[in-house]
Amino acid sequence: MSIENTYQAQQAFFASGATFPYAYRRKQLKLLKKAVKRYERRILAALHADLHKPPMEAFGSEVGLVYGEIKYCLHNLKRWMRPEPVSSPFMLYPSKSKIHRAPLGQTLIIGPWNYPFSLIMTPLIGAIAGGNCAILKPSELAPHTAAVIANLVQETFAPAYVTVVDGEGSEVIPALMQHRFDHVFFTGSTNVGKKILEMAAPHLSPVTLELGGKSPCVVDDKVDIQVAAKRIIWGKYFNAGQTCIAPDYVLVHAKVKDALITAMKKAIASFYGDNPATSKDYAHIINKKRFDTLSSYLSKGTILHGGDTDAANLYIGPTLMENAAIDEEIFGPILPIMTYEHLGDAIQYIKQHPAPLSLYVFTKRSSTEKTLIEQLSFGGACVNNTLGHYTNVELPFGGVGYSGMGQYHGKYNFLTFTHAKAVMKTGTWLDVKLKYPPYRGLGFLKRLMK
Ligand code: NAD
């Protein structure tokens, strides 16, 4: 079907009201869950083909999270859909007010290549829960996963409800966005995010932007150094550093720098063995272009550990660096380490970059934790952990400033894909004359509204 026909078909289907009832949404979520189960092996194989993703990481961060999101949504959807009563001021007596969560309509979901399955499926769950239609655009840079998503969706949903459009993003998305979407949900780079916002502007389409940025990891001198090292190394080299919320760089208190580096080297060896190139638990770089960009960073500082590359296998070993001047988001397995002596200096350094998507703080001092959380702007944070906040469906996930706008996951996914309709209903048994012209009750009104 052409883009034009797909768009028209979805418009007609949404207008029919078929997607509105709770029973319909519930059934579609269950169908999606069954389809993911049916396709599970193919999804994991595709993720391996695209990124050499270890099955444990692929299941945990792509398939398992999608099951979790559907389960949570099925458990709560009825309650979320119920109009929410709120109080009404005395002045409006006898009125009652409620917030109705209304479906938006036609939605467009655009995904990146690094978590190419879950970052399309998770917003789709929100779109279905909200009673919407959806066009999905997976990343062409993870072609095996994009093909599996297309098959899964085609087998599960009518194209007038949910469908996949594939191809080069720079061609397909502008063609799609000549039409008005009731919501555009984009996950990807900040540069393309700006273009999405521009394309949405003429239609006044609401947009969620899930972008990237440099997520700092601050390590205080009062800290469990072994645990900190393991959790930083795990979070950094998960998916070979190709995670939007991966620790981008470490700011460690000068007193514990050497101990941290020693513990980090030990953690790398214990996770991936002496030669990570042969590890089944270590992902590879998505393509040659990214491999070349990342390889060029290796000459921008002093390598403390790793630095080995293999272009034929798109492999870059887990690398620790110091004196590294890398201004852009690294988005690969290279971890610059810098030191600070006063927390204020670490804060000043972090503030020089646009607001990060995530902040990681390792400390046993509640004052350090409190100061960093209060003084820095960031999307989400972990204290004494990395990545974990993303996986808690009770927490909103999203960026701030240049790391994005809007949130999703759990209830926030449903809220993003619905509109809050404010409805007030007033009884007719009492009709206070004072509010009507000719006006006489100004003094009374002033007393009431003070
Ligand atoms: P990208 O911006 O290059 O691509 C994302 C999507 O946009 C793809 O589907 C692509 O086809 C499309 N696209 C590319 N060029 C386009 C154009 N000119 N016009 C319209 N659409 C276009 O991002 P990427 O390289 O796939 O992903 C990496 C980036 O995504 C990193 O910056 C990372 O931090 C970020 N990211 C953010 C999150 C998050 O949740 N905040 C998650 C994953 C990745």
Into which percentage range does the β-strand content fall? 15-25%
Could you name the CATH homologous superfamily of the largest domain? Aldehyde Dehydrogenase, Chain A, domain 1
Basic shape: globular
Q: Find the CATH topology of the largest domain.
A: Aldehyde Dehydrogenase, Chain A, domain 1
Attached small molecules: nicotinamide-adenine-dinucleotide
Query: How many separate helices?
Result: 14
Regions with pLDDT < 50 over 5+ consecutive residues? Answer: none
Q: What is the first-to-last residue Cα distance?
A: 60 Å
**Biggest sheet descriptor:** 7 strands, mixed
Query: If you compute it from the alpha carbons, what radius of gyration comes out, rounded to the nearest whole angstrom?
Result: 25 Å
The main sheet orders its strands as 10-13-14-9-8-15-16
Examine the secondary-structure arrangement and name the CATH architecture of the largest domain.
3-Layer(aba) Sandwich
CATH level-1 class of the largest domain: Alpha Beta
Q: What structural category arises from helix and sheet content?
A: alpha/beta
Count of DSSP strands = 18
Proportion of residues in helical segments: 40-55%
User: Which whole number gives the mean pLDDT?
Assistant: 97
Task: Give the domain tally.
Answer: 2
Pfam families: Aldedh
Keywords: NAD, Oxidoreductase
Active site: 210, 244
GO molecular function: aldehyde dehydrogenase (NAD+) activity
